[in-house]
Amino acid sequence: METQFLQSFVTVIECGSVAEAARRLDLSPAAVTARIKAIEDELGTPLLRRVGRTVKSTEAGMRVLASARELVQNVRNLHAMANNEASLGEFRLGASASTLSGIIAPLLCGLYKRYPNLAVFIEPGNSAALYQMVTNGSLDAAVIVEPQFKLPKSCEWRVLVNEPLCVIAPENMAGRDPFELLNNEPFIRYDRHMWGGKLADNYLKENQIQPRERIEIDGLHAIAAFVHQGLGVSLLPDWTPPWSEGLKIVRIPLPSPAPVRRMGLLWSNGPKSVLAEHLLEDAKKLF
Asked: Which fold has domain 1-74?
């Protein structure tokens, strides 16, 4: 049985969609479907079933999921140890798009000073999805928004940076009152399904602000680009630089105290906890 085929099965389950799994794996949906079919033929039972627009695991799929995930990871660890002389194997780290350059990049520089041959796999995603992947063992750690609920005993979370909410507006709106902008200008909303988006939505409700909503989207860099084009204003975390170059936008602080998005490191307790501890040590010096 091909390990890559098992990886496709695991990714489809985690994404809940063949199309999204194909995007992550850089394959066509037809190729992913063919891989799943090959595994099902070999095992002699269906592993997936369609439920509306999503894909769910069958009972047989659920029974083999944990073993499939473990087998895929063991093979990747073998490759990492054989080719990189890294006794820890591969370090699986999750990150949202806004943290890759501002937080992840400098932290990895410090980590490679200690472990120059360490193999690192980076999984992009939003905080909710990355949280699930750490808790189910798919990832060793992830940089995510602070969870607003009790963590399982197998995991820990520590803050890395605090990012206060602020109004993002076109450059020609500099100096205007943030509440006046939010009430009167077209509004580009940070997706309310995202943990950071919920923080912004709660702030609007608490201050009885009813914006003229024009667009709702998940993606801080995309929202900043929309504001640059004059499509509206937004309420976003002042995320850790660097921001995209060439954007003619301003960040207007909210009246104190402004809500803060706390970005931190979530990790599972285990052999690779030492890597998470090193990341936290370096974060204290960097941020």
From this structure: Arc Repressor Mutant, subunit A (1.10.10)
